[in-house]
């Protein structure tokens, strides 16, 4: 797993992805199975790995990565490279929740567990696009700060195709 080209320790690396689909029951007190779709929440990535006591510098580097902030004091957003995560169509993440570090005394190591939350999920991008289309008439997004490289290329193509 890479976060902005920085490697997460690979010893016993385990990754899982969770997607929450929000539905609300329309059946009330009846036995009806009808439900209303309430949206798709950002995916959560759960990660754990092991660091030996002798590799404590790797753990220190990990904490620096997890606690890094931008100029506004917000946690950094990372581009993520991982087979399981990318298969779930997640491209950017932000640290979320707590980091748990447990001692494995018999193995002279620590097990580290943490969670990442998808940043700008596909569902969120679609909602933004629909909202943008409702408020404007076919003008491309001008703010490219939160766009991936591929999205910026698509924006340039879109701009070139818009009649002047």
Overview of the molecule:
The structure is a single chain. The protein is an alpha+beta fold and 164 residues long. The protein has 4 helices and 9 strands, in the order ββββββαβαββαα. It has 2 domains: 110 residues, STM4215-like; 44 residues, no CATH class. Helix content is 27%, strand content 35%. Strands 2-1-7-8-9-6-3 form a 7-stranded antiparallel beta sheet. A two-stranded antiparallel ribbon has the order 4-5. Strand 1 and strand 2 form a beta hairpin. The chain starts with a strand and ends with a helix. The model has no long low-confidence stretch (mean pLDDT 85).
In short:
With 164 residues, the chain is α+β, with helices and mostly antiparallel strands. It folds into 2 domains: 1-26 and 36-119, STM4215-like (2-Layer Sandwich), CATH 3.30.2000; 121-164, no CATH class.
């Amino acid at each position: 797993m890479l976060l902005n080209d920085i490697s997460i320790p690979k010893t016993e690396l385990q990754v899982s992805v969770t997607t929450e689909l929000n539905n609300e029951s329309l059946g009330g007190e009846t036995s009806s199975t009808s439900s209303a779709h309430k949206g798709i929440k950002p995916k959560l990535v759960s990660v754990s790995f092991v660091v030996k006591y002798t590799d404590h510098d790797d753990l220190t580097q990990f904490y620096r990565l997890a606690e890094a902030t931008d100029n506004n004091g917000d946690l950094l957003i990372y581009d993520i490279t991982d087979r399981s995560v990318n298969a779930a169509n997640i491209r950017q993440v932000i640290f979320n929740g707590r980091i748990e570090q447990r001692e494995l005394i018999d193995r002279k190591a620590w097990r580290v567990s943490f969670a990442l939350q998808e940043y700008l999920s596909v569902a969120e991008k679609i909602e933004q696009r629909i909202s943008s289309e409702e408020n404007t008439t076919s003008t491309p997004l001008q703010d490219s700060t939160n766009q991936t490289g591929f999205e910026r290329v698509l924006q340039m193509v879109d701009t070139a195709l818009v009649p002047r």
